[in-house]
């Protein structure tokens, strides 16, 4: 299913989610991170209070009019007018608080979400983290380039993904083509079902994603129309919470009920209908072999299952992984890197015995506690709750321990990258949102200025994918388990007559044999009946792309009692699927803050990336332009290169304050300033603290902190402190 960012109102979890320590220092991130005081009124109670104040204002207004009509004494009328004005002031106050509550808890003077986003995106584009693709030709919606710092962040995130998942679990990494023949995506269901619901402007033909229009309508009403009742607000929130659950009919009915029209023209809209998101192509010059740009990387792994299983010593469980580009022709790409038409996916397919979904390393993550948002909570309009993962699995909220294990590992991955724990939740799919074959699905959603965004999908897809490819290809994608004791079972036995098949099909014999052997019981007995009545039958061999004529002497089909030494079964697959661009964008927002200069008249932008993510780990500056300082800087630069620390030397004559500000804006965690030939300073980005370290030692100290073998506070307590004589601000 093409995902859509989930739409629960942002203020719900923002209130629960608190990371007050940093937020209190950081004016912009306070908007998203801080918790209001414990007794702060809820949005719901504020809506009720506002309705009450409005009624009081109306009643007092009537009273004033009645007094005036009845020619009451002036002092009496004046007192009533004063009471009316007081009520209006009270109402305005409640209105203001409600406005703050619906726009994410922002207090007086705080920047709005849009202003915050504007500041982040402006910095990202100006410093070339990312750039709209083909910009000089006015670009194409939904296509972006990563510039130098963006590329570095992306490759750091991917390197950590490999370390945290592929290496940790000995996964088998593969790299498959993006161009995929139609038959593969027909088998997987993408050709028929990989659709989003679209509506058209009935007059201009402009296309819109139907659920996005409904979502925008509800959000706008909730945030901008303060006069709606608490009941109406609850209804709109429920629509938002269950948006992914709506069928085409229900979505169409809601659009009609709310009178939603085309946003640009206000023209009426068509009923919603499905639009396939795949980019179609044809492979080779003849145009005879249809294909698609892959919409996900998973299929490349499924079609290689047989070989990978063999590579793994015919043992389960095992996981395969792939990082690569995916292509989706989104109806209305928007929200920058969050909804694009080409993006990097990192996917894991963990193959497991369906009868044993325990995980040997689950105990290692069972004690983790984080926000979980189970189906029941969503349906009843409640919020996500802090839950212990072990408890969620033992109670059955999460279907099995392997799924739980990956949820825990995803949590560790995201928070280690720098995603704020308070703005991360795991949301369970609603019943209709989940594919019918799936056993359970959870999305890791991250809150940013656009609301809650699905960044990682973690699904137990049961045996669907391998079965689908077995059926279509005729190659049995199954696993075997040796039984301790042989057992007697009644089984379908298909015995192809290889001699006859060889004579009839020559070089294609193997494909026909494999297709015959892969038949399910129903298909096999239909073929048997046809062979018995007519002596021959048409039989589709998908791998050949056509039907062939099978005669009754070519295959023997029966049911026999046989003694079995092994169990043959189709493995289940548990699939964590990571949208790398979405994770990176959320990381940008969660890392961004501004701080004033000493005079307080200018704001500087900072990305507080952890060293792991930072595009450049360190800068080297001679304090002033002096040949002896420059040669020390070159010497340190060489040591950093040898140590494998990415860095940048800046020997421009800019003030040191300006140079710090420029690198803070790129999120560089450490700066080495050369102001002597013996000692230099290391400055830490967020605290701006500086220590003095010898020239010979400095590269290894930085390397240790970057690699996480030493903390900055350890460095701070081990080396002399430096008080900067040159005001950096
Ligand atoms: P899905 O296969 O639809 O569950 O998508 C897997 C992951 O890909 C999602 O969790 C998102 O993080 C990411 N993703 C899906 N569609 C897009 C898109 N149009 N642009 C960027 N990332 C996407």
Structural class: alpha+beta
Mean pLDDT: 89
- Helical percentage: 25-40%
Strand content: 15-25%
Q: What's the CATH first level of the domain at 616-718?
A: Alpha Beta
| Quaternary structure | single chain
Low confidence ranges: 1-38, 105-110
Categorize the overall geometry: globular
Biggest sheet descriptor: 9 strands, mixed
Distance between the termini: 50 Å
Under the CATH scheme, the architecture of the domain at 616-718 is: 3-Layer(aba) Sandwich
Per the CATH scheme, the topology name of the domain at 616-718 is Rossmann fold
- How many strands? 28
Give the strand order of the largest sheet, numbering strands 1, 2, ... along the chain. Answer: 3-10-11-21-16-15-14-12-13
CATH superfamily heading of the domain at 616-718: Anticodon-binding domain
Q: Which small-molecule ligands are present, each listed once?
A: adenosine monophosphate
Radius of gyration: 32 Å
Q: With helices defined by DSSP (H or I, 4 residues minimum), what is the helix count?
A: 26
What features would you highlight for this structure?
729 residues; alpha+beta; Helix Hairpins; Signal recognition particle alu RNA binding heterodimer, srp9/1; Rossmann fold; 9-stranded mixed sheet; 5-stranded mixed sheet; binds adenosine monophosphate
Layout of secondary structure:
Elements: H1 10-16, H2 20-23, H3 30-33, H4 43-69, H5 74-102, H6 113-126, E1 130-132, E2 144-146, H7 148-167, E3 172-174, E4 179-181, H8 182-187, H9 190-193, E5 195-200, E6 207-209, H10 210-224, H11 230-241, H12 248-257, E7 273-276, E8 280-283, E9 289-293, H13 298-303, H14 305-311, E10 318-327, E11 342-352, E12 369-373, H15 375-379, E13 385-388, H16 389-394, H17 401-417, E14 424-428, E15 440-448, E16 451-460, H18 464-473, E17 479-496, H19 498-505, H20 509-517, H21 521-534, E18 536-541, E19 546-551, E20 555-569, E21 572-579, H22 580-591, E22 592-596, E23 603-607, E24 618-622, H23 627-643, E25 647-649, H24 656-664, E26 670-674, E27 679-684, E28 690-694, H25 698-706, H26 712-718
Parallel strand pairs: 3-10, 12-14, 24-25, 24-26
Antiparallel strand pairs: 1-2, 4-9, 5-6, 5-7, 8-9, 10-11, 11-21, 12-13, 14-15, 15-16, 16-21, 17-20, 18-19, 22-23, 26-27, 27-28
Helix pairs in contact: 4-5, 10-11, 10-12, 19-20, 23-25
The protein binds adenosine monophosphate.
């Amino acid at each position: 299913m093409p995902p859509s960012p989930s739409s629960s109102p942002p203020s719900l979890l923002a209130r629960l989610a608190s990371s007050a320590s940093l937020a209190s220092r950081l004016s912009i991130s306070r908007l998203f991170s801080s918790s209001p005081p414990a007794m702060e009124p809820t949005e719901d109670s504020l809506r009720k209070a506002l309705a009450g104040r409005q009624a009081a204002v109306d009643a007092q207004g009537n009273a004033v009019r009645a007094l005036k009509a009845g020619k009451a004494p002036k002092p009496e009328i004046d007192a009533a007018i004063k009471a009316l004005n007081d009520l209006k002031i009270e109402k305005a106050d409640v209105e203001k608080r409600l406005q703050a509550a619906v726009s994410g808890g922002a207090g007086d003077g705080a920047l709005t979400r849009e202003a915050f986003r504007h500041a982040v995106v402006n910095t990202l584009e100006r410093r070339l983290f990312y750039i709209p693709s083909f910009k000089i030709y006015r670009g194409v919606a939904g296509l972006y380039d990563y510039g130098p710092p963006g590329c570095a962040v992306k490759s750091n995130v991917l390197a950590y993904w490999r370390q945290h998942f592929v290496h940790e679990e000995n996964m088998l990494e593969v790299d498959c083509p993006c161009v995929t023949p139609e038959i593969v995506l027909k088998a997987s269901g993408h050709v028929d079902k990989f659709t989003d619901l679209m509506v058209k402007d009935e007059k201009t033909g402009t296309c819109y994603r139907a659920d996005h229009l409904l979502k925008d309508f509800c959000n706008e009403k909730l945030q901008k129309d303060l006069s709606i009742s608490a009941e109406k607000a609850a209804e709109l929130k429920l629509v938002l919470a269950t948006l992914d659950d709506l069928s085409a009919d229900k979505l169409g009915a809601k659009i009609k009920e709310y009178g939603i029209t085309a946003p640009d023209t206000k023209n009426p809209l068509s009923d919603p209908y499905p639009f396939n998101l795949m980019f179609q192509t044809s492979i080779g010059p003849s145009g005879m072999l249809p294909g698609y740009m892959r919409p996900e990387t998973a299929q490349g792994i499924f079609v290689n299952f047989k070989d990978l299983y063999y590579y793994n010593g015919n043992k389960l469980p095992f996981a395969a992984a792939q990082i690569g580009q995916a292509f989706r022709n989104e109806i209305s790409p928007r929200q920058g890197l969050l909804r694009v038409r080409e993006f990097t996916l990192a996917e894991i397919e963990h193959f497991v015995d369906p009868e044993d979904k325990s995980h040997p390393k689950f105990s290692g993550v069972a004690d983790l506690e984080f926000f979980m948002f189970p189906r029941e909570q969503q349906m009843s309009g409640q919020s996500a709750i802090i839950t212990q993962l072990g408890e969620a699995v033992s109670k059955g909220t999460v279907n099995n321990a392997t799924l739980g294990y990956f949820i825990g590992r995803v949590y560790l991955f995201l928070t280690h990258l720098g995603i704020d724990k308070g703005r991360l939740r795991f949301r369970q799919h609603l019943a209709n949102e989940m594919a019918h074959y799936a056993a359970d699905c959870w999305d890791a959603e991250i809150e940013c200025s656009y609301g809650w965004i699905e960044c990682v999908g973690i699904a137990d897809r049961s045996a669907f994918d391998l079965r689908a490819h077995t059926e279509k290809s005729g190659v049995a994608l199954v696993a075997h388990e040796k039984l301790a004791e042989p057992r007697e079972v009644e089984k379908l036995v298909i015995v192809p007559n290889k001699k006859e098949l060889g004579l009839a099909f020559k070089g294609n014999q193997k494909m026909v044999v494999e297709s015959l052997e892969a038949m399910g019981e129903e298909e096999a007995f239909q073929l048997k009946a046809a062979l018995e009545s007519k002596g021959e039958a048409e039989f589709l061999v998908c791998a050949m792309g056509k039907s062939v004529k099978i005669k009754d002497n070519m295959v023997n089909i029966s049911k026999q009692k046989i003694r079995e030494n092994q169990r043959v079964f189709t493995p289940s697959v548990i699939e964590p699927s990571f949208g790398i661009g979405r994770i990176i964008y959320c990381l940008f927002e969660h890392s961004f803050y501004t701080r004033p200069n000493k005079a307080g008249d200018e704001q500087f932008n900072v990305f507080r990336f952890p060293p792991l993510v930072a595009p450049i780990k360190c800068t080297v500056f001679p304090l002033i332009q002096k040949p002896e300082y420059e040669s020390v800087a070159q010497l340190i630069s060489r040591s950093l290169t040898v140590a494998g620390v990415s860095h940048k030397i800046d020997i421009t004559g800019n003030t040191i304050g300006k140079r710090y500000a420029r690198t803070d804006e790129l999120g560089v965690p450490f700066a080495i300033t050369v102001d002597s030939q013996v000692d230099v300073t290391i400055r830490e980005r967020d605290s701006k603290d500086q220590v003095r370290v010898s020239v010979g030692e400095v590269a290894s100290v930085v390397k240790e902190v970057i690699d996480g073998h030493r903390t900055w506070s350890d460095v701070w307590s081990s080396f002399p402190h430096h008080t900067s004589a040159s005001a950096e601000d």
